[in-house]
Design a protein that fits this description.
Structural class: mainly alpha
Distance between the termini: 62 Å
Helix content: over 70%
Number of strands: 0
Oligomer: single chain
Largest sheet: none
Order of helices and strands: HHHHHHHHHHHHHHHHHHHHHHHHH
Radius of gyration: 32 Å
Length: 611
Amino acid sequence: MNYSILQFLGLLGAVGLFLYGMKVMSEGLQKAAGDRLRNILSAMTRNRFTGTITGFFITALIQSSSASTVMVVSFVNAGLMTLAQSMAVIMGANVGTTFTAWVIALFGFKVDISAFALPLIGLAVPLLFSSKSRTKSIGEFTIGFAFLFMGLDMISKYVPDLQTNPEMFAFLQRYASMGFGSVLIFCAVGLLVTMVIQSSAATFAITLIMCSKGWIDFPLACALVLGSNIGTTITPLLASMSGNVAAKRTAMGHLLFNLLGTIWVLAIFYPFVDLNSWITEEIGQGDPNALYRYVTDLKVSHPDLYNSVFASSLPTADGDVLSTRTMITQLQVSVSFGLSIFHTVFNLINLSIMIWFTKLYVKIVEILVPAKHQGDDEFQLKFITGGLLSASELNISQAEKEIHVFAERVARMLPMAKELINTKEGSDEFNRIYSRLEKYEEISDRMEIEIANYLNRCAEGRLSNESKRTIAAMLSIDSEIESIADCALGVGKILLRKQQAGVQFNDEIHANIETMFQYVDKAITNMILLLKNLEHNQESAIIVSYNCEREINNLRNQLRTNNISNINQHHYEYQSGIYYMDIISTLEKMGDYIINVVDIVKDEFRSKQVV
């Protein structure tokens, strides 16, 4: 097989067209669907059964379990889907991939969607000139869809053609008579071939060719198909490398699902193959083992005829060659049905067992792929990464999740500041807590910049007016949260100045500061609750926030008034009162930043719900 540099460059171009098509299609879909996309995904994956059905139909539609699982990994990375939801979709995708095998078995070919690519572009181009943004987005989606399948079609043309060069696999004949060892070898071959050509359907076709030439029998063909199930997991694993921990866990879950299924099938391999042979015969499709016996006998008894049959596919008038080819074609149908049944029964049994252990499955994946940093003192964005999708609409969802994580991290600074007040000044414990508080504030500065830069990059894409307003609101929230972190560190800085001045607080001051901390803590907890689900927050939670703000302001005013009286009555020194009021004012200012966030949520995100 000759493979030129020009063909390799053609392959790179085909991959480029495929990736560009995916980008345009993703952006068009997300701009057309907007905020509805998350609701659609949520409805489709409401429980493990609807998630499984979703995975099945998506994979059956696009005829690629690798593509559908890469989409799932993308959605998990964007925070649109939970790990448990993704497991159900992946399980369904594994059953959906058998649809392609049945298409090959029934019709002998895959539906050539690329044939409709140019007509689709012709229909979509006028939509780009529409005055309606949503219509333009639908046009972009359609053109991206066409480019995607044009790219796939070109990749299949430029990839090294293993399917029409099966002689590359002829050497495997020497490993076909090693008993169960052969099963393991051919399972590994199926895995490697599928990894290389990124298509279990192509591996299926190569397996049929190898069977028709008498190189392998039906059980070894089943072993190849079994290995190809694991090979399809490589694409999502590679895609998850640039994703977050949740994306990596999703890809690992896909691998684990197929790996565990393969292990139990290998444990009962020969009885399981016999079961599928029996099913194939019972539905009237003949014995899938007959092809291997027929071709092997032909090779031994009539070697010249065997060579004539397989030497060339050119037309011939030889009656023996024609009748032999006809017989082989008929027997190929039995093998094709047998392999399709094997693939389907394997995945159905695997699904029916695994679907009941989804929660356990999630726990196992979380153990296998632990978070890189267990501590909170490391700077690590949880949802914003290089990502798998470059579409702005989905990136907004990632940023929403990240802002919630940012707020949670900043909220941890409040108990630190409180603990600092009750720790002996100048002690090692005081210095340790202050250093940690300082480190958290540095992390908050970096997170604010990263989130803001990310949102600005999102704003560079073509967005709906609603999405532009959302980004502006999120930038404001990002800034207000960082100001909350500044206030928390500000309490620590006041305590350092107090320590240098040699000032002490009495029990009354400590009790009043404790009360103010409780009010602020209640306010920040409620703010985080609102940020957790920005677009579906409750009116009652907003009312609670305003009540908290009033309580904080009233307490500040009360303590400020009492402070003058307490100094005059010599409850504490004037300097103590100064530092005490500085801390109260700083905490009250923190409450102002919290209510600013609540105002933005009420004005920008509550209004979207009303609409």
